[in-house]
Amino acid sequence: MNGSRIIGTGSALPRRIVTNAELAERVDTSDEWIVERTGIRQRHIAEKDETTATLATAAARAALADAGVDAASIGLIVLATATPDNTFPATATKVQAALGCRGGIAFDVAAVCSGFLYALATADSLLRTGMAQRALVIGAETFSRILDWEDRTTCVLFGDGAGAVVLEAPGADAGGSDAPGILGTRLHADGACHDLLYVDGGPSTTQTVGHVRMRGPEVFRHAVVNLSSVLKEVLEETGISSDEIDWVVPHQANARILDATARKLGISPDKVVVTVDRHANTSAASVPLALDTARRDGRIKPGDLVMLEAMGGGFTWGASLIRM
Ligand code: UT7
Which of 2, 65, 167, 265 is deepest in the core (most CB within 10 A)? Predict the structure, then answer.
């Protein structure tokens, strides 16, 4: 039997766009270096009045409108973020209040760039147990607030934004790889890689928010290996071959990682949704943002077979195969 179905998607981006040229005025970098090494041309950066919760709420509203359902029908909100508005309560509860759907389940998930995959699997599991009938799964970040704007090796890579999906519990008739729903998911973590990508602050250690620190080339190598292997696992689990996939919606960290992973699996680059050029790396928001972008521009259609994948700090990584 298939898992829960995505019945609507939405996204939101901060108003302000920051180009590579603008960053080159602040740190020793260039548009040429950033484009060549990452594929990034610009990113959206939140203004003071734009927070993880406001972006998440806007994305959630867009997803609800797309699905044509009321906020009141949402019994579960799972929000993936590494940049919550406050240490507690969960940003998901702020979104719940803003949407006016009180009383259901609402909590955050912390798996950084893989957060949306973790949140989707968590929501799917809860829906399958009957804890709720309909969920909002959101990835939302304001990474600009945890960047060291003097560190050129990280500050050029990230952006802010949010993406959301409305997820509905599988009906009694759900089944078969042609029916809409989540067909298979695999998640992993390896905490021994903590020091390759982390934030050097937190309430229990420094009592500061801290900044992103990353050993980029090492993360890059792990990303290609881990992503290729988890994608293979999901294909094996579902009995689907890579040439049956219509679209890959990857975490948008670096255009070169997207190319290398697609090549390893023998998937044509034309089937890979790329938004890293416009959004940069928006951590947990990047997969649902890219999914919504490709649905709204008409690339991803009902019935398409879509592979979502991500890898991030922890390390954490995962993939999910979905019939839209
Ligand atoms: O979202 C979670 C997952 N994150 C990722 O997947 C990120 C994975 N890593 C990457 O995407 C890449 O490793 C980076 C984009 C972060 C870096 O690209 P790279 O090709 O691995 O470059 P590098 O770190 O090996 O640096 C090459 C050179 C160095 O100079 P030297 O030592 O060769 O003189 C860096 O200091 O480029 C220098 N450099 C820069 N130059 C201009 C590093 N950052 C910059 C910069 N502008 N912004």
Answer: 167
198 in the same domain as 114: no
Where in the sequence is the domain holding 301, given as residue range(s)? 181-323
Q: Is 156 in the pocket of ligand 1 (CB under 6 A)?
A: yes
Best mutation site among 149, 220, 224, 258 for ligand 1 pocket (most ligand atoms within 8 Å of CB): 220
Q: Is the CB of 33 under 6 A from ligand 1?
A: yes
Number of residues in the chain: 324
User: Would residue 174 count as lying in a domain?
Assistant: no
* Cβ of 312 below 6 Å from ligand 1: yes
Residues 164 and 216 in one domain: no
Going by C-beta distance under 8 Å and a sequence separation of 6 or more, which residues neighbour residue 60? 10, 71, 77, 95, 99, 136, 138, 164
> Which residues are catalytic, by number?
113, 251, 281
Residue 107 CA to ligand 1 centre (angstroms) = 34
> pLDDT tens-digit profile of 219-234?
999 999 999 999 999 9
Cα 224 to its chain centre, rounded Å, is 17
Whole-number Å distance, alpha carbon 216 to ligand 1 midpoint, is 6
Quick: pLDDT tens for 134-173.
Answer: 999 999 999 999 999 999 999 999 999 999 999 999 987 7
Main-chain dihedrals φ then ψ at residue 244, nearest 5 degrees: -85, -15
Residue 71 Cα to ligand 1 midpoint, Å, equals: 42
Same domain flag for 159 and 192 = no
Gyration radius from the chain CA atoms: 18
